[in-house]
Design brief:
The protein is of the alpha/beta class and 214 residues long. The chain folds into 2 domains: 155 residues, Ribosomal protein L4/L1 (Ribosomal Protein L4, Chain: A), CATH 3.40.1370; 50 residues, no CATH class. It is built from 7 helices and 6 strands. It has a 6-stranded mixed sheet with strand order 2-1-3-6-4-5. Helix 2 packs across helix 3 and helix 4 crosses helix 5. The two termini are 17 Å apart. 23% of the residues are buried.
Length: 214
């Protein structure tokens, strides 16, 4: 398979003396917009709880007896007090708990992730650093790193092989920054940002997983 080379940066913002090799089948293919739509639509639907519920005529509190006889009273006929057209009655065709799951083929999901990664690469919105070996849990250090990489104030998704405590606690209070394990990153995670920032372990593991169709 053909490879593409991507510059690797240090946390100081300078280019390292090495490049990372990535497969064009993951980072260099023609983006498939429809697969991205299907994957994101499915992921957003899966986030809905679907626990909404309204009461039917059998669940509303009250008697089920016929209030008055069918004819002879001069009033409109009525079968029970809990029908939807009456005050304190039930809800007609109201919502009930159900799943919003939308199934998407596994290969389509993989294609969607590859398409997003390719778009990020072509648009130069993909950066790779050697590692996120933070010395402390201070937000000040994280702000300094983002400033060095010229990413301060931008919406950034950080892809890592493993989320360390120092990285998590130093980044969690910075607006617009999201940290995601590379292997579990969804299409929406990869798409919903201005810049994808990955460490070497994260970008390589994501590349290896998608090369084999995962």
């Amino acid at each position: 398979m053909k490879k593409i080379k991507l510059d690797v940066y240090s946390l100081s913002g300078k280019k390292a003396n090495k490049k990372v090799e990535l497969d064009t089948s993951v980072f260099g293919l023609e983006p498939n917009e429809h697969s991205i739509y299907l994957a994101v639509n499915s992921e957003m639907a899966a986030m809905r709880q679907g626990t909404h519920s309204s009461k039917t005529k059998g669940e509303v509190r009250g008697t089920g007896a016929k209030p008055w006889r069918q004819k002879g009273t001069g009033r409109a006929r009525i079968g029970y007090l809990r029908n939807p057209s009456r005050v304190h009655g039930s809800k007609a065709f109201g919502p009930k708990p159900h799943s919003y799951e939308k199934k998407v083929n596994r290969k389509v999901k993989a294609l969607a992730r590859k398409s997003v990664l390719s778009k990020k690469y072509f648009n130069k919105n993909l950066m790779v650093v050697e590692d996120f070996s933070f010395k402390s849990m201070k937000t000040k250090e994280a702000v300094s790193v983002l400033s060095n990489l010229d990413l301060l104030g931008k919406k950034v998704t950080i892809l890592v092989g493993e989320i360390g405590d120092n990285l998590f606690y130093s980044m969690r209070n910075i607006k617009g920054v999201c940290i995601v394990p590379a292997l579990t990153a969804s299409t929406y995670d990869l798409l919903d940002n201005n810049i994808l920032l990955a460490d070497l372990v994260g970008i390589k593991s994501l590349n290896d997983k998608l090369v084999v169709g995962g």
